[in-house]
Amino acid sequence: MYLKATLQEINAVKILIFVCLGLILLGLGGYLYWMTTPMYSIQEAGIAVARHDLEAFEKRVDIEQFVDNLIEDLLMKPASTTPGLTVLQRSTGEEALAFAKGSLRAQLINKIRSSIGSSGQEGRYTSHQPNLGPDAAIARDMPKAKDLQGFFQAAGRELGRETGKLKNETYMRLTACARQQPKTITGKLLGSPPQIVGFQAKLLIDEYGFTKDTFRGVTGWKTIKDEKGYPRSIVGFKFNSPKAGKEITVDIGMYPNNSFGDWRVFRIENIPELMMALNEDYEYQVHSLMTCSLAGVTSQAVNDEMRGLTNRIKQQVDTDSILNKLKLRFK
Hints:
Layout: H1 2-34, H2 38-51, H3 54-60, H4 63-80, H5 87-116, H6 145-179, H7 185-190, H8 197-208, E1 215-225, E2 231-241, E3 246-256, E4 263-268, H9 271-277, H10 282-293, H11 299-316, H12 319-326
Antiparallel strand pairs: 1-2, 2-3, 3-4
């Protein structure tokens, strides 16, 4: 009788051990799964912010791509749809805006990094340097190579100067027009001195109510396929915005950094809806800015500059002799 009771107790202990092991494995499996979800990455990013751990934060947030996408959605895309521009104005405006983007990008990236922790890194900026040179239709009577070299060098220098001058003048008008709109997004981001752009961006975030004090929780997350078939997750963050006078949701886009679901934040998915909720007609702001900055860029103005350019080229080399041989004439 005693032996039978002992065996029953042993069996009960075995069952208890198996149940405990099962619960441990289930919990471990659940945690491992949790680590592959976007919400785990969001949690880790939040911990990194609290600890001022920039390296851990950048593991969960692609700061550079986030800023690139933000500028693209807020400025570059609206600028490309500005109505009433000539082909010349559109191309000149895009170059000037790209020049402005470089400075803005660097300032925003630096502001985010300095807010999280000191990294000693700066946003990378590579200005666009167009490689310009004149095209020539070569006739039968070819000039000497050294004459052509001098001609092309002089023409290339002058064309480069004119192109750079046009872009720089448009950029200066762009910033001047932005300063005339100090209360708009474009005015605060493009019209402010570079050293306070990051501060202005912080003021915008506070004004819109995207802060920890107005944060009302996560609405959930979903995983979709993008246009190329790659997985993307969208996580909704709800804020009580004083500017909008209601709760609004910011949809954060994330991509998997590896096959195990190490997700990284890389964009805001619903910029147009957010701007509408915040009563910010950002497209009109950008269109007005582009129209203002490009008002003086006309074909006649360019033709006048080109006449001055050809005169400067002629002063540097024996242009007439070379052009006679090439069967070309400056008009």
